[in-house]
Amino acid sequence: MPPKWPEKPDPKDPAYRRLGDRINFALHVAIFAACNSGAWFFYTLYRIDEPWTLWASAIWGAVLFAHGVYIFGLANYSQS
User: Fold this and answer.
1) SS (H, E, C) 17-49
2) What is the pLDDT of residues 12-43, one digit of tens each?
3) 72 CB burial (10 A radius; 0-12, 13-18, 19+)
């Protein structure tokens, strides 16, 4: 069941912005998991000699980790 906001959405509301960022991060994780599992499946199935899958997974994983650090640790949601 998708999350529901109990009141009229206001982009200036810190809680609303936090929820939006966390939903965005969850979508990022889902796309990462789907693309990586598909890439590694075909890498294993066709025994590709080039290690592009390893590099793509490592770089995208590092970007995903940085995204998570920002969302859960560094983001400032206080009203300005």
Assistant:
1) HHHHHHHHHHHHHHHHHHHHHHHHHHHHHHCCC
2) 888 888 888 999 999 999 999 999 999 999 88
3) exposed
Provide the Cα torsion 39, 48, 62, 34; round to 10°: 10
11 in Cβ contact with 17 (< 8 Å):
yes
Rounded to an integer, what distance in angstroms lies between the CA atom of residue 50 and that of residue 75?
Answer: 38
**Nearest Cα to Cα of residue 39 among 54, 27, 26, 29:** 54
CB 4 within 8 A of CB 11: no
- pLDDT of 48 strictly over 80: no
